[in-house]
Amino acid sequence: MLIGLTGGIGSGKSTIAQQLRAMGYPVYDTDSQAKRLIQSDPHVREQITALFGTEVYQDGVYQTALVAQRVFADPVLLSRLNAIVHPAVRADILRWSSSLTSLPNNRITSSSHRLSGESEGEPIAFIECAILYSSHIHTLCDAVVQVTAPEDVRIQRTIQRDHTTIDKVRARMRAQDKEFLGHNPDLVVNNDGNSQIHDICLEIQDFFCNFAG
Questions:
Q1: CB of 197 within 8 A of CB of 12?
Q2: Residues 74-100: pLDDT tens digits?
Q3: 104 has a pLDDT exceeding 60
Q4: How does pLDDT run across 13-39, given as a tens digit for each residue?
Q5: How many CB atoms sit inside 10 A of residue 21's CB?
Q6: Does 19 map to a domain?
Q7: Are 168 and 28 contacting, i.e. CB atoms less than 8 angstroms apart?
Q8: CA–CA dist 110, 85 (Å, integer)
């Protein structure tokens, strides 16, 4: 079972993903894996070079700032870049997920709150993705978890993490929160800072024990 894990900026989605890894669950981080594919996948590099020109890889290194500057001013160019990267990530997720079926400890049990190699539960893995819907990665998922938090908490977390301003954070939030309009996740968890991350992950685990069962 592939479970999408999504949420807006400052929701604490990545912190929950880290805890799920610590609990033994495989988690695919689409952001870091997209960067890997952009840098190292020959077919992706070829397409991006055709789109932006040879200057996009200087000394073999992808020029993130250059690309960001160009796509920020040109939504059509951004769409064309996404049309290269998103399918590559989806294909990589399928390769990754197919390799998990042989893992002996990738099982859940609703009675013990822990992974168990003896359990007969369905193998579960998570896909961490902030743009789960617009990238169409949700179509690969059996279910979706959305992480939420109050706006003031999200703003405070993002300012502390990125050393940015409240106005910039609010602008990013307005842009990103459109991602979730019209979609109904299977589970919404509130990461407002009052609950322990481990307890939130147990909530997720218990839900999908019953979901899978």
A1: yes
A2: 999 999 999 999 999 999 999 999 988
A3: no
A4: 999 999 999 999 999 999 999 999 999
A5: 15
A6: yes
A7: no
A8: 37
Instruction: Flag whether 189 is in a domain.
Output: yes
Q: What is the three-class DSSP state of 184?
A: coil
* Residue 157 within any structural domain of the chain: yes
Say yes or no to pLDDT of 186 above 90: yes
**Alpha-carbon torsion (108, 112, 118, 119), positive or negative:** negative
Q: How many CA atoms lie within 13 A of 64 on its CB side?
A: 5
Nearest to 125 by CA among 152, 154, 105, 139: 105
Identify the pLDDT of residue 74. 94
Among the candidates 84, 99, 114, a domain finishes at 99
Full domain range(s) for residue 6: 1-26+125-213
Residue 208 and residue 154 in one domain: yes
- Rounded-to-integer distance, Cα 108 and Cα 26, Å: 12
The domain boundary residue, chosen from 99, 117, 139: 99
In this structure, the answer to whether residues 212 and 141 fall within a common structural domain is yes
